[in-house]
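Reply to dn_fold:

You asked what the input looked like. This is it:
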Amino acid sequence: MRPERPADPSGRAERTLGGRQLAALLPDPSGLRPAYRHLAQAIGDLILDGRIALHVRLPAERELAVALDTSRTTVTAVYDLLRENGYARSRQGAGTWTALPEGRAPRGVRRLLAAEDTAIDLARAAPGMPREELADTLLRVAPQLAAHAHTPGYHPYGLPDLRAAVAERFTRRGLPTVPEQILVTSGAQHALTLVLGLLCAPGDRVLVENPSYPNALEAMRRARLRTRSVPVTDAGWDIDVVESAFRQAVPRLAYLIPDFHNPTGCLMPADERARVLRAARGSGSWLVVDETLAELALDVPAPPPLAAHAGPGGAGQVITVGSMSKTHWAGLRIGWLRAPARLVTELAGQRVATDMGGPVLDQLLALDLLDRSDVLLPPRLAELRAGRAALCAALAEHLPGWSLRLPPGGLSLWVDLGEPVAPALAERALDHGVRIESGSFFAADPGLFEQRLRIPYTTPADTLHEAVRRMAAALADDLAPPSASARPRWVA
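and this is what came back:
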C-alpha cells in the first residue's frame, strides 16, 4: 500500500505542478513590464479557468525562475502577489499551494451560473426545454409518482422501467442490451466519475482526445490520473496515432467522444470505430465511450453505438455513457451507463457510498420523455439545424475572417479565429454582454487552441446574431481586428 503524500494547508493530499509545466502555461516574461504583475495575473486566470487545479503545490521559486529564464526575485514577487490576492497560500518551509480568493468562483461554476446574469450565454452547449412540454410531462407522470409514494424510493441501479427503456434503445440501435447492463446516474458526468473511481488508481494512465470535454478532463485531474492525448482535428481522428498510443501507453482506460465530438463536431467513421475497439482490446484497456451527443444527427443518420462494432460478445471492456442533457433537458440530471452486468453491480455498490439513488420524479419524467422521443426529437433537430444556419450566417456577416468546418451533428461550431486571441476575446466579450469559452478551455495539454472558440447554436437565431455582433465589437475595440479582405471559408 502506498504511503499517503504530505498534505497541503487545506489538509488535502498534495499534488505538485512542475516548473516546466507551469512555465508552458505562462507568457514570456522578457517583454512584460512589470513582469511579476503579468505573471501573477496569468496564474490567477489559469486558476479561475480550472487549467490549474486548486490545492496544487506550485514549483519552488528557484525552479520556476529557471524554467521562465527570469530572476528568482521576480518569482518571489509573483508568489507574494498571488498570496496577497488570495490565489495562493504558503506554509513556512513546506511550499506554496493554489487557492481561490474569497468571493471568487472557478470558471466552471461561473459558467453554470451564467443564467443568473444578463449576458448572452454561449458558454454552455445545452438546450432548454419548452415549458409546455415539461408541464405536459409532469401531468402525465403525476399518477405514476403517487404510485411510488408508499415505497422507500431508493433505487441505486435506477428505476427498473427506466433501465429497461434505456436497454431497449441500445438494442434498437444495434447493440443488444438487457436491463442488468444499465446503471441510471445523475448525468453522464456522474457515470464517468463512478467509472474512474472504480477502475483507476492515482497515477494510472488514461488516453484522452485533444481537445476534449473539460469536465471529463477535470475529473481525471482530480483523480490524479496521467493523461496521454491523441489529436482530433477538423479532419477527425488519425487512427494510426490512436493505435500507436494504445500500444505505447497501455492505458488503464481511454475516454472518447466519437459521435459529433465535443468540441470539434467530428463523427468517427465505422471502420475507425472497429480499429479503436481492436486497439483497446489489444492493450487490455477499458474504453469509455461518451454518447451524450449521438442522437443529435443533423445531416447524417444517427450512428450505431461504437460497442456494436465489436461483434457478439466483443464489447466486454467497453462502457458507454449517455444522458438526457443534450437531447431533452440538462435540468433533469438523468444519465446512464451501459457496461457488463458484473461491473454495473460493482458501480452501484460504489454509488451508494455517496448517492443512494436518483430522484424518482426525475426518472419518471425521463422515462416518459424517452418513450416519446420519436415525436419529441425531430422538432429539436429542426431547431438545431436552423440555429446552426443562423450562426453561420451571422459569422459570415460580422466576422468573415473566421473559418470553420460545418459539423454533421451536435450542438456547436469549432471556429478558427486565425490568431491566438480567443482567451483575451472571451474576457473582453463578457464586457460586451457575451459569455463564451476560449478553445484553450478544452485542451488536454496546455497552451493549445487559443485560436479557437466553441460557439453553440442552441439559442434563438436573433440571439445568436446579436451575440456575434457583440463579439465583433469586442474584437474591434480591444484586440487586433481580423483581416477585412479575408473571405469566409465554409467547409461542408
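The chain has 17 helices and 18 strands.
Hope that clears it up.
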